[in-house]
Amino acid sequence: MSQIKLMSRAGRVVSGATAELGETLAVQSQARHTPIRTMCCSNEKTLTMETLNPKIIKLQYAVRGPLVDRAAVIKKELEKGAKKPFKTVINANLGDAHAMQQIPITFIRQVIACAVYPDLIKTADFPDDVKERAQSILKACAGQKSVGAYTSSYGMDMIRNHVAEYIECRDGHPAKWENVVLCAGASSGIKHCLELFCNKVDGKDTGVLIPIPQYPLYSATLAEYGLGQVGYYLDENNGWVLDVAELERAMCDASDKYAVRALVAINPGNPTGQVLKRENIEKIIKFAKENSLMIFADEVYQDNVYAKGSKFYSFKKVMTEMGAPYNTVELASFMSISKGYMGECGLRGGWMELCNLDPDVQANLYKAISAMLCPSTIGQIVVDCIARTPAPGDPSYEQFECEKSNTLDSLAKRAKMIVETFNKMEGFKCNVVQGAMYAFPRIQLPKRAVEEAKKAGVPADGFYAKRLLEDTGICIIPGSGFGQSPGTYHFRTTILPQPKLLKEMLVIFQAFHQKFTKEYA
Amino acid sequence: MSQIKLMSRAGRVVSGATAELGETLAVQSQARHTPIRTMCCSNEKTLTMETLNPKIIKLQYAVRGPLVDRAAVIKKELEKGAKKPFKTVINANLGDAHAMQQIPITFIRQVIACAVYPDLIKTADFPDDVKERAQSILKACAGQKSVGAYTSSYGMDMIRNHVAEYIECRDGHPAKWENVVLCAGASSGIKHCLELFCNKVDGKDTGVLIPIPQYPLYSATLAEYGLGQVGYYLDENNGWVLDVAELERAMCDASDKYAVRALVAINPGNPTGQVLKRENIEKIIKFAKENSLMIFADEVYQDNVYAKGSKFYSFKKVMTEMGAPYNTVELASFMSISKGYMGECGLRGGWMELCNLDPDVQANLYKAISAMLCPSTIGQIVVDCIARTPAPGDPSYEQFECEKSNTLDSLAKRAKMIVETFNKMEGFKCNVVQGAMYAFPRIQLPKRAVEEAKKAGVPADGFYAKRLLEDTGICIIPGSGFGQSPGTYHFRTTILPQPKLLKEMLVIFQAFHQKFTKEYA
């Protein structure tokens, strides 16, 4: 009296449609001695492309896509002596300063070394403020001795306090340390906050306004969480400005399909490099208030402002100074140790400041974060060092400031050089890189290359980027990975290669572009 | 001709039901100059308990719940001089060895210090193998110089290779480095794999078999992802053994509601401390094969085996030795740097090994992981140190082995002592702690206390744990946070307090229990 079983296409066993209720119950009572399903054939898997989470299939993250994998393979081939038209791969795809030989800040590294191996506080020839800082961190650790202890899920209270002080000093307005959450990089904070929006409102899925072009963590996370991507175009002809009329257009177009509830602004812009003007931020905040949107202020490049006349204003500062009712907009602002002058990507650290969240909502967010235990203590230490940098008179002060300004000055020069060079190249047009770490030039592609790409089923700028990599070893990310106005082509390159290498790269680039254009003329 | 807007209860603006199509279109064309929604009152929020992701509301994580928050508050009160019936809070709630004064492994910390501040390779009085290790890690970093560079999203290739070698050596069978993924602790690996299952199969949501009692990361993540929790009870009367008949019972009971597709086994057990016997693991693998389940082998306590006659067998090893068709079961095995003899919780590191996944599925998993950039390089360094420990003859060998065995021996003694003491206490019954870091005794609670708790709307063991904390400063986690058979009461305590403190804790515990029992007699 065993139940009839059928295999569905995806390999799952389904109850036979002919089995009667009595039979089914009889089988259940026998369950202790019979397998619940018939034996599967040995190649049957429970996870197949048919049964896999479809949102994971949809998710795309161009910055680490197949092109970057291919660059890694080429690098290995070169190491093994393969002959190529170039000698090295230049990874201009990722905002990874240390991979491009940027020098770490000495103070930060000395503090970490002492905190990790406290004997060094006694034995190493390090400045006193380094040792004091390490001691203060160890004292704030659970058990008061080891960075190997878990911290609070939101980071050490002491460091959250220092971040709040940093924000107060930056903005000239109070910040509450309880609203500061330390994270393993900005990405994890952004994901935690976006996840809060997974809910239907008035029968519609939630939509989130994101810039186009955008940093693809946003599109990837929206796909992963099943949230609606509502793109608003940045205005390339006006230096990638964020136009509120375009926000309205995007929101209006999406409102049939989505309950639009959040707005992402990346300032300084990634990949676009613009720095928002204060009045622009005011208009965005007004728009958010009028439409009950929570603002995600991605401000991880707040230290990376290069252009004359450009200045970083935080959304928090502007909102606070606008007064009621705009100072009640729900806001999450994100910061990272991976960018700025420190570039400590591998150590994974960052923070978010939450403003005006419903206290019950915030409590639920904190609860969800707590299941991930805590962010890396080492990332937290870096946060402490950049939130509370050595003060004038401290033994590490001069070296810290010197290292910081050397890095930022050099980045500013590279930002200028890269734009100037691109704009001298035929078929290239590049806006000023006011901030952040990238140039995002628009390129003209020969019609025949566009057709060729279409035949191959790839975006034309992806086709171009692949050829560039194979021919020259330069790895950039095509504009299609970030989004762009239909019919336009771009790519993102970092400004991070050191000056000499960057110059070389641009010469190679120019030669390649000429060759490519000629080939497909 | 402006569109009529209505406010829904959650504060969202909805289109007026009376608006005709023509009107709506007219409004859309005006959108550039009119706000899309009417002005909200200033206290209106987009994220409220009504509009928040309901899965986040459902999510619970007892190990860091309100009780632990309360312990932190009490600790601060004590520091400020508040008078309490005790002088210190004893955090026996979390598997956090360093917070309980466990000494870090010197080799690990010296390698990190050198990798973070490479000058120490020249200047510090560290053994040569420390310096060589640090140099090999720096060479494997992008740019070959700094741990501040991002690594591959799956960890440095070199370290993944070392982990594969470790697994081969542990199991006596091959392991592929490409199937090893380094993570920021086991938790993030577990979450990434569980997320793959978010899909309906044959019209049913996916269910996951998890032990009861369980480590609450599982219940929290299932709630967060909307996956079905299918609990199977461990058999307390048989040393918390994992009985396959009970797996069948659980699966059968759930099969109407869920497509059960995965099985979590925690070995050694958390919170239950059992170490699975080889034959037991074989039966579980057979069950998984027969029912097309992917196995999640939570093996983070693989170094923590104390009881005579107990031995750790990995699911991978047993499956491999069972041969076809069992060696084709889909498996993810998880390991962490937070447990074992190293206890480096704060540094966030771990790995997972994937076996027999559909290659397309694995490629999609890898793609999803890539959006989070990379796990902490420091956590990766610890993984390298424990995957490739100093070899006999290496300068650090003896100290490493000595520190490792001191820690594990002491933990074994504490495991024994805690069980013996509990079993001498009236109303306590505790299984042998064969492995892991916790005791999970069953306690009898006076009927009147159970009623009192019911009145207060809290689980009876939660009521007990709260009183224990308030009266003695001892913080444990009630059994209800892990799940338990209905009508039984337990709690989890770590075995991590150092021997002297642990003895003191047990004396205080005994006195409290007597007092509590008397009070509610």
UniProtKB/TrEMBL annotation, chains A, B:
Name used for this protein in its record: alanine transaminase
Catalyzed reactions per annotation: L-alanine + 2-oxoglutarate = pyruvate + L-glutamate
Subunit details: Homodimer.
GO BP annotations listed: L-alanine catabolic process
Organism in which the protein naturally occurs: Helicoverpa armigera (Cotton bollworm)
Entry keyword Transferase: yes
Record-linked Pfam families: Aminotran_1_2 (PF00155)
Cofactor field: pyridoxal 5'-phosphate
Pathway entry: Amino-acid degradation; L-alanine degradation via transaminase pathway; pyruvate from L-alanine: step 1/1
EC number: 2.6.1.2
Key words of the record: Aminotransferase, Pyridoxal phosphate, Transferase
UniProt entry tagged with the keyword Transferase: yes
Gene: HaOG217279
Residue span, Aminotransferase class I/classII large domain: 128-495
InterPro entries named in the record: ALAT1/2-like, Aminotransferase_I/II_large, PyrdxlP-dep_Trfase, PyrdxlP-dep_Trfase_major, PyrdxlP-dep_Trfase_small
Similarity remark: Belongs to the class-I pyridoxal-phosphate-dependent aminotransferase family. Alanine aminotransferase subfamily.
PANTHER family linked: ALANINE AMINOTRANSFERASE, ALANINE TRANSAMINASE
Molecular function via GO: L-alanine:2-oxoglutarate aminotransferase activity; pyridoxal phosphate binding
